[in-house]
Amino acid sequence: MHNYSCSFLLQESNESLEDASNELILSDEDVVRFQIGEVFAHMPREEVEIRLEKMKEDASKDLERLEEEKESVLAQMAELKKILYGKFKDSINLEED
């Protein structure tokens, strides 16, 4: 469940970064407000574009890593299910509802 929520949050974050990038493209300001932690700083547009691209790359890499980890865990679960069903037959139920 933890990976699912992390994956979901990263996906939302990636979408938010994409939205921010699109808004920046539409903006004609040379200096824009950029949130750093809990405060907004006035920064040159070019620097914000660079930061947004870096943040999008990092979020994509993290999301990709989580997807790979998820696939690995699902494969391990499938293998364990085979072993447990082989040992206990129909006396256990490992399927999700």
TrEMBL record:
Protein's name according to its UniProt entry: Putative prefoldin subunit 4
Coiled coil regions in record: 45-83
SUPFAM superfamilies per UniProt: Prefoldin
Family indicated by similarity: Belongs to the prefoldin subunit beta family.
Pfam families, alphabetized: Prefoldin_2 (PF01920)
Keyword Chaperone included in the entry's annotation: yes
GO molecular function, one term: unfolded protein binding
Provenance organism: Ananas comosus (Pineapple)
